[in-house]
Amino acid sequence: MTPITEVEGRRLALSNLEKVIHPATGTTKGEIVHYYAVTAEAILPHLKGRPVSFLRYPDGPDGQLFFTKNPPPGTPDWVRTAPVPRSEDPKARQVVIDDLASLVWAANLVVEFHTPQWRADDPAVADRLVFDLDPGAPATIAECCEVAVWLRERLARDGLEAYAKTSGSKGLHLVVPVTPTPSEQVSAYAKSLAVEGEAALPKLVLHRMARSLRPGKVFVDHSQNAAAKTTATPYTLRARTEPAVSAPVTWEEVEEGRADGAGLVFRLHDIAPRLERYGDLFASVDDPGSAGRLP
């Protein structure tokens, strides 16, 4: 029998809670749902008001993975959706996760959460800038840390403050709160800094995705600032063998990570102690008072 639970007055059917999703650690679906429930206070501000795209992995990372922007079949009528016009479908809508009940409902689907840099009530007007630092082997997250420190200092010269998180995969994400700005302008500025980084650190940085150029360097992916693109939400689990988390980190951790990056891997059970110690390191990202204006 599928257990029914009540969350904030909403009745939810939670299925297959004993199913192992992350085989390396034996992490079950029930543990995943519990993780999101206890992490809700931290993750919800980064989801709230933004149309969500889901990477679903209901049979684990070795099963079928599929990315969807449309509300999944069976989405309850109490889960908020918002219009997100697309060129191929001007009437398209996407889920918006604004509350605990919606978060637990989505967690039961076994998903990664991905969001754009803008809110549903102001499409294609970004309030965040993002860089995805992606290392090409034999480069690792240690090289990403080196590039992140350079970018932080460069952004600071323009009056912008960067916050870092692990991608939950191989690299780092830098997120910068900005005053609402058309996505194309944010994209152009981000690209200019990626190009500048390649000029300043030619042996380390790439601003182009070309695979042939990647070995030993860090691709500074600026493309996720385009209005149609999304980035893994802070605190989302990733579809990996182990339950890796896209976890906010301190700049001290980033600076120390330049040695070997060994301490910059966080899994599901690491997050509660980090939240107790640091609080939400990304709290200021969604604070309009922290936003800087692009030059």
Automatic annotation (TrEMBL):
It comes from the Bacteria. The keyword Ligase applies. It is an enzyme of class 6 (ligase). Keywords: Ligase. Its EC number is 6.5.1.1. Residues 28-282 form the DNA ligase D polymerase domain. Pfam families: LigD_Prim-Pol. Transmembrane segments: none annotated. GO terms for molecular function: DNA ligase (ATP) activity. The keyword Ligase applies. This is Non-homologous end-joining DNA ligase. It comes from Streptomyces kurssanovii. The lineage of its organism: Bacteria, Bacillati, Actinomycetota, Actinomycetes, Kitasatosporales. The gene is ligD.
